[in-house]
Amino acid sequence: MALLKLLSSIGLYDSFLIFLTLIIVYTCYFYYKYFTRENPLPGPLPLPLIGNIIDRGFDEFVEYTDRMQKKYGDMFEIYFGPQRMIMLSKYEYMQNMFDYSLDSKYMRRIPYFAGLDELNVAGKGIALNHNVNVWKFNRHFISRALLTPSFSKYSVIWTQNLVEEMMDFWKDGAEDDGSFVTNIVEWAHRFTTDSITHFTTGIRVHAIEAHYNELLSSRNKKPKKSTNDITDATKFFRSIKTFVVGIYFFIIVPPFIRNYFPFLSNESKKHFQNRNWLFSKLDDLIKHRRKEIEHTPLNQPLRFDMLTSMLTAYTDRDICEVKYYDEEYTNRPLTDEEIRGNLWETFVAGIDTTANLFTFVVYFLANYPNVLQKLRKELDVFFEKLGDRRLDFDCLSELVYTEAILKEIFRIYTPAPYTARNSTAEDIVAGQVWPEGTQYIINIHGINNNEKYWDEPEKFNPDRWLKKNKKSDKLMPRVVFGGGRRVCPGRKLSYIELKCMVALIYHKLDVELVDKNTPLKTKFILIRSFPELNVRIKPRQIVNEFFKKSYIH
Ligand code: HEM
């Protein structure tokens, strides 16, 4: 009553009544649609407008869907705002969604979201592109840049240099006892930022070096001198992170709430400003490279990176010898806006995923000394055989146990626990007919931890990957990077980066958790990550009969 009196005294009584009526009408409409929906599935009851996003534990999304899977089974539904999502945790239910045919009914990942349009990312790039034709066009340019054998070979050489550079910074920042205490999450993300920006644009951001400078200065130490330009490195690095949060925010928060709730409308503004800054940086980069190409004499070869490949496509300077499977989509050069979309796309998809997986490796190796010991055994033999030679693509395949560890962490704790498909035609899934436009979430984490496919799925056991001919062997690699036409184009690069990082770092260094009781607690914003993981890095103490010496100093 007091509220009504107050509203009346300030002349808002009528508006309040209209607002209330609208909410009631919408609520009735929402629940009418909900209780008469086709193929009702078990799942938590959604609220109008916001769906299940304020359910207890929703923000710990992986734990939430784990609980829901236990409660409701391998197929249930949840609501993101008003959008119904069918969650599939059984491989057989989603097998045909990973179909390689171009006529597949599952070429679209998500539908059109007005929020993504507002952010000017709808219909751009590939991962969140709802427009299948535009996706086909863009995907070609990204795949041919990331999946060629020459790119894989080059990426091993370059990644090794980058790991060594990062280890040098750690060495330089070490205390008198030789140890360096730091948050490994930050370094891993800086590492993949430098790596992906280099592979996609040919230009380094120097995010690692900027972090080294900031960290040493904060510890009253003098960083070593360098000629690299690191002015905007940290801002650029943070801008990509904020951009990812912005995408998530604009997808899950409905426009009405986003625009009219004061705190949230400020959040929207922050994301618009960040997007403008990031896009202008990318536009400068594209223009600069375009000029460089124009000024490069015709008889001089152009360097191969994704940006150069996209800028020259269907021009006289086309550096790509691979022809597209469907010319209909590629008979013209890309516009700068399309190129920009493909660039931010690759940053967003390629930085956090690999970086987070590496931090999970650090966590698991610190908690499983027997696995670490076995890894070291493999690395010692491997590097002794390698001698003075550098790592190359072929020799990485000898790291069988290293790969088993990576696969097991991908299985038990993947950074990309879900992917999605939005059907473009009616289809039968799990024995029921579903209309066009049904939104599915493929619960990669759920499938990889489902006891139907795995013995003791909760057990961290890299050895399971050394046994041959198991049904699950084929299953995991397919689901962890998705499948079909929309499979992850960065999967090869990711394995290369991870193998190089694990091999080089764990051969030379001990990496311990500062707090040995750190819980395995992660956050989920599109992907899964540790907010922070503090470690003590020091030269490896060889407890081997023959080499009782410290390795690196
Ligand atoms: C730990 C490493 C990574 C994991 C676990 C991962 C996982 C995934 C998954 C599950 C998908 C969805 C696939 C599907 O729906 O079928 C995906 C898509 C994608 N990934 Fe990755 N990824 C990783 C690394 C990378 C890297 C390093 C890059 C770039 C260099 C990258 C670029 C992309 C892109 C552009 C897409 C969208 C593909 C499309 O829609 O056509 N990813 N990734």
From TrEMBL:
Its cofactor is heme. Keywords: Heme, Iron, Membrane, Metal-binding, Monooxygenase, Oxidoreductase, Transmembrane, Transmembrane helix. Gene3D superfamilies: Cytochrome P450. The keyword Transmembrane helix applies. GO terms for molecular function: heme binding; iron ion binding; monooxygenase activity; oxidoreductase activity, acting on paired donors, with incorporation or reduction of molecular oxygen. SUPFAM superfamilies: Cytochrome P450. The chain crosses the membrane at residues 12-32, 243-261. It comes from the Eukaryota. Signal peptide: none annotated. Coiled coil: none annotated. Heme binds at residue 488. Belongs to the cytochrome P450 family. This is Cytochrome P450. It comes from Glomus cerebriforme.
